Amino acid sequence: MLSIEDFLDVMRSEGVQKSATKNAQITLNQLNDFKPLPEVEYIDIARFINHIREKHGYKKSTLAVRKAYIKKYFRYHDRDDIIKKLQVKHEPRHLNPNDILAPEDINYLLKHMDSPMYKAIITVLYESGARINEALAVKIDDDIKEVNIGYDLTLYADKTRRHTYAYREMYLTESAPYLREWLMVRSSDSDFLFPLTSRAVGMWLQNLRENLNFPKPLNPHAFRHGCATRLVKKGMQESLIRKQLGWSSNSNMISVYVHLANTDLKTYQRMQAGEEGEEAPLIEITKPKETYVDRISQQERDMIEMREMLQTVMKDNLEMKAQLESQTTLHPDEFEIEDARPDMMPTTAMSVDEIKEEGKNFEGKMKKAIEEEAKKNSIPIN
């Protein structure tokens, strides 16, 4: 039989994620300590499961994961005789409807955030329903392209791109303004749209939740739950929801979110009975009124306007000086300063030197304002 490390190498070669191989390693090491793997029989596995349940207090969901890795290991060695009776039952997921992120929650978070990168992350996760590893695997040149209605997004399971079954495409519209702003201000040399780790995103969301005293769970997967529930409420066909979320055609995962959406049944029935008036429209993600890019662009326009004013005044001054020199040369005894043509006089009461100095001060202020704006919107790259 393969050693545990050799089997883990096989898993890695198949593109299995690092977290999964780590769990498999823990499971097989525990079983091997309980009884050497070449000597294991079915009854040994049953006793092992009872042992770790009592010793570690594992939940049913954790035990199901342990059984799954044991089955994978022995099936690889054609030992179906000892695992055919090993049943892996995953507990059905129960989500609290009050914990599901809604568009108004996303808008609240956006209102209290400054970072263009994290605004883009949460809106992309919420609109696409992408898993965090899928979002972090998006490459700028290959997987995200601007189109008329927003952005064309391609998702892969992870950065290795070995899981072709998870490949899928979709359009992003509501998150497009935030995504566009991030693409304009990002300065990283990374090929990836979001040069972060899933751990960094999770820690940032945890800190945000604590700082805002946000009442709902806030983690990368929470946006996926919110997206799925919202798509069900919008009435999207189940086949399309499965496709967008990356579920197989026969997956029962959608039933979890159908159940959550059905919690609004009583509200709908009361509305039909005339107790609550007209049905409220679905809330959408708020578009930014003014972005970092807008503010910087306005400052740059102000600087351009000042430069143009300076150029105009300097041009007027040069033309006036040439006219005066020409007239005094031709009529030195008759020419007086009052005889200069009115349209050749400066267009401002300020002298050219004063305007130059004011221009320098203005450009200095604009440069400082831009630097402060950039510092305010600094992007934490972890």
Report on this model:
The protein is mainly alpha-helical and 382 residues long. It folds into 3 domains: 4-83, DNA polymerase, domain 1 (Orthogonal Bundle), CATH 1.10.150; 97-272, Intergrase catalytic core (hpI Integrase, Chain A, Orthogonal Bundle); 292-376. The protein is 58% helix and 4% strand. It has 17 helices and 3 strands. The protein has helices at residues 4-13, 18-34, 42-56, 60-76, 80-83, 103-111, 116-128, 132-136, 140-143, 176-185, 198-212, 220-234, 238-245, 254-261, 265-272, 292-330, 352-376; strands spanning 144-147, 150-155, 168-172. Strands 1-2-3 form a 3-stranded antiparallel β-sheet. A hairpin with a 2-residue loop joins strand 1 and strand 2 (150-155). Helix 7 (116-128) packs across helix 12 (220-234). The longest helix has 39 residues, at 292-330. It is elongated and about 115 Å long.
List the helices and strands and how they pair.
Blueprint: H1 4-13, H2 18-34, H3 42-56, H4 60-76, H5 80-83, H6 103-111, H7 116-128, H8 132-136, H9 140-143, E1 144-147, E2 150-155, E3 168-172, H10 176-185, H11 198-212, H12 220-234, H13 238-245, H14 254-261, H15 265-272, H16 292-330, H17 352-376
Antiparallel strand pairs: 1-2, 2-3
Helix pairs in contact: 1-2, 2-4, 7-10, 7-12, 12-14, 16-17
